[in-house]
Amino acid sequence: MERAGVLNIESVGSANVEPHQRVSFLRRQLQPQESVKRTVFDVTFGIALPILCFIFDPIVFRSFFGGEPFLGKLQFLAYTIALIEISTLALWLSAGKLLREHALAIGGFLYAGALVSFLIGVVLFPLSLLGIMFFGIGLFGFIPFLTALVFWRNGRRAVNLHQEGASRRRKLAAFALGLTFVLGFPLAMHLRLRSLAHESLQKILTGDGPEGEAATEQLKLLDSIIYTDTDEIIRAYYNERAPVRRERLARAYMRITGRSIDAQRSFMFD
Hints:
This protein has 270 residues and is mainly alpha-helical. Helix content is 73%, strand content 0%. The chain has helices spanning 2-17, 25-30, 36-55, 75-95, 103-131, 143-161, 168-206, 209-223, 231-239, 243-257, 261-269. The longest helix is centred in the C-terminal third of the chain and has 39 residues, at 168-206. The radius of gyration is 26 Å and the shape is elongated.
């Protein structure tokens, strides 16, 4: 009888717990309790998979098939923000409560990462749907949505960690500082580098002698860290009639890209 009573109590307890075990995925992510499973989820979708997506990216920020990548012009901006965000998340997950004094700024950093990841997911959504038909590769295009969830939830945790002991104005200032830095600093660098790349490209297309050589060296350096439309050199070469200028354009293209301009010209126009 005693054993039956115990079994009966356990069965009643499990019946009461069962509804709580059926909490939706999104609501589980919002619960304050941390767990090993949640940490693994955060590391997987907030750090590991985003890095792998950048490394094996075939068409979004880099192109393995020739032609311009889908978001090639935003390559440096995306990489810089990703570096800041992944580093911040890794620091937050490893140090956590030790960063209480800086938790509000970290929250701003992570909220910015959530926003950027979500926007990338939205932009890639049509391409992702199309890519599902090709060996399911388009499924990787949905990772930014899960990455956004990881950053948003951890940003929320960081902000809530320092709820007490700080004025509302201080909270907003720290949050705005984090948000502005993550978005503003990479954007300023991105725009400056793109401006320099454009200036160098124009000097290559119109300049001669030392000016053209210096511009070629500068664009070679810039092309390694930011996407540049070197196809403009091919188009100029295709339209140029003066043999000397054609040769100069061909040398500049080879110096910058390491590829023959005639081979690329055939690929573009044939």
